[in-house]
Amino acid sequence: MNNFEFYNPTQIVFGKGQIEKLKDLIPTDKKILMIFGGGSIKNNGVYDQVKKSLMDHTLFEFGGIESNPKYETAIKAIELARAEKIDYLLAVGGGSVIDATKFISAAINFDGDAWDIPSKNATFENPLPFGTVLTLPATGSEMNCFSVMSKGSDKLGFGNPSLFPKFSILDPQVTYTLSEKQLGNGLVDAFVHTTEQYLTKDVNTPLQDRIAEGILQTLVEEADKVIHIKEDYESRANFMWSATMALNGLIGSGVVHDWATHMIGHELTALHGIDHGRSLAVVLPSLLRELKEQKKVKLLQFAQRVWGIEGGTPDERIEKAIVCMEDFFNKVGVPTKLKVYKITEDDLPTIVSALRSHIPANLGEAQNIDQDMVLRILKRAL
Amino acid sequence: MNNFEFYNPTQIVFGKGQIEKLKDLIPTDKKILMIFGGGSIKNNGVYDQVKKSLMDHTLFEFGGIESNPKYETAIKAIELARAEKIDYLLAVGGGSVIDATKFISAAINFDGDAWDIPSKNATFENPLPFGTVLTLPATGSEMNCFSVMSKGSDKLGFGNPSLFPKFSILDPQVTYTLSEKQLGNGLVDAFVHTTEQYLTKDVNTPLQDRIAEGILQTLVEEADKVIHIKEDYESRANFMWSATMALNGLIGSGVVHDWATHMIGHELTALHGIDHGRSLAVVLPSLLRELKEQKKVKLLQFAQRVWGIEGGTPDERIEKAIVCMEDFFNKVGVPTKLKVYKITEDDLPTIVSALRSHIPANLGEAQNIDQDMVLRILKRAL
């Protein structure tokens, strides 16, 4: 096991009817800015639940955070928050709203160009405290201190231990109104967060492995009910908790990390507008095939424990496991090939060079994924 | 899944050579009281490592915390801490030292009889911040906010969210000097912490179940190396992290809890001086046999997933699983019968009535373990 530090002070409030606890989670003397997205929370009742619980608080609103949240939109929220002397933020939405809220928290007391925070890892002081009401299980942003923001065709991540949510309310019932596409994307996102921290070099971490496998197995087992039954509380609850656990630092403690699938996927999103979860489903199978020798020990364990594959040569078992994973992605409505998005071989060099401009170093757990390998991975995914 | 709240702000610093980070984990302006046990840390080098890292801090010392830490000893530490205007505590030891430190933290600014905190659940204010350097993987106290203290033949637990350690340093190398008995007790303690939160009524928690099973499997797999190889870093690391994860709130989130084995075990410790881990190994097999119908779903899952038991009737599989568990306890040197401790049927009524005096209500996940059932459980364990 590698040395590690684990720290996660976010208070999770999980279950039916928990949004009403908001009033007790935020001190009454705070001036709150509630941040949300395109307004779906006004249709599914979440907006009303939040307003009702906070009726005795001072509450301002900022709607309109988009998927792959934009710097320019967040800046408008910062201007409002500064003008109104806001001292607490409340994200009500999915990963995009929460990521934007983290950026707003970090940038509000930052002098200079706030884009330096993601682009130059600039230090910031006095971030605003914030909580979240999660509406879309997927990114894990509700229980970590990381954020990804977009500006033009740049999509950049940043993080800081001061950016953990103070609390996150997870009521599985709020997922009943999500579309099949949103649910499918969320299942894949949580799955790939897990593989980025599990399908890597084995450094003798049996407990972390079993937790990762537990998340993957739970996602696979619950997916059918999640996608096809609208109001099945139990499967939504198990999905929601699995997605949070996939990226709260726990399964990443003491293990080797990869994250190349995410880095390549970010470029597909930035250049071709492919949803985040969908970009991962395209990249991961090809990346695993490209690196199957390097990842052999864990891929064989993945084949056996997650998919129950026993017979055949090691290569056959690994290929079977990757096909099982592709079938799983497809079954939840998420394609695994670039052609679905009308991306051809001619488009690939632009993707590779955009990635190189954002991350000059090689990618992956062994820092051996260079431009040529990225191109090979993308070609496999055509 | 049941509604739950999860909150755990302890910073874990895990791995080789991490004790030297102490100097950065405690602000330099703090007056620290270092609290430890019988002096084993002076023989195994931990004392010197702590002193070296904190050479620029103001450091006082209080040694002599015993197993099943006594109220009277903790009071002496409180007197010293008050006299020296201590404002930070550092526990260096196992669960007993950490539990005593939590009591000292809670009681130092408490007016009146400090025993009211465990015995009457009295509220306290301004607990002192504290960190820990763990030397014995077992209790999980290094990453939770609970403590158990003893006074006379009373052994009582208490807890409060203000009593999480600020940090805990877990260096598996410090376990190299532990005795086989200490290691065996620790393995059993971590195992039973897990079963108290896992072998209970099924409320559809597949991820929590798999994490619990992952802890149990890891303890079983690593035990042989832990007990028989003195300096095997990897098995000690996996044991240490499993013991912490067994009682940090995570596997207990959203599930049904039992804890009757602990409550009965505490009386065996208080009245007959049986080590905590050893008391659990005596009670748990008999308790599971007594309640096998009520716990059937989880016991069958335990049989299959933890012990690989497939054939036979449900009753046969459950009995096989309990025998496997007893064999495991015995293999790590921990007996499963009261006769080893020369406790006979004549001693049982006193144990039952002592338990009743401490906890008048029925015990267990279904609150159906009354005095008669406690007696039957203990008779099975003779």
Account of the 3D structure:
The structure is a homodimer of 382-residue chains. Chain A is of the alpha/beta class and 382 residues long. Chain A folds into two domains: 11-173, Rossmann fold; 179-380, Dehydroquinate synthase-like - alpha domain (Dehydroquinate synthase-like, alpha domain). Chain A has 15 helices and eight strands. In chain A, strands 1-8-5-4-2-3 form a six-stranded parallel beta sheet, sandwiched between helices. In chain A, strands 6-7 form a two-stranded antiparallel ribbon. In chain A, a hairpin with a 2-residue loop joins β6 (146-151) and β7. The radius of gyration of chain A is 20 Å and the shape is globular. At the A-B interface, β1, α8 and α9 of A face β1, α8 and α9 of B.
String of helices and strands of chain A: EHEHHEHEHHEEEEHHHHHHHHH
Gyration radius of chain A, in Å: 20 Å
Count of individual beta strands of chain A: 8
Percent range for helical residues of chain A?
40-55%
CATH architecture of the largest domain in chain A: Up-down Bundle
- The assembly state of the depicted protein chains is homodimer
Count structural domains of chain A: 2
Global morphology of chain A: globular
Helical stretch tally of chain A: 15
Taking strands numbered 1, 2, ... along the chain, how are they ordered across the largest sheet of chain A?
1-8-5-4-2-3
Structural class of chain A: alpha/beta
CATH-assigned fold name of the largest domain in chain A? Dehydroquinate synthase-like, alpha domain
CATH superfamily of the largest domain in chain A: Dehydroquinate synthase-like - alpha domain
Largest interface: A-B, 41 and 41 residues
CATH top level of the largest domain in chain A? Mainly Alpha
Average pLDDT metric of chain A: 97
Strand content bin of chain A = 5-15%
Largest sheet of chain A: 6 strands, parallel
Distance between the termini of chain A: 37 Å
Poorly predicted runs of chain A are: none
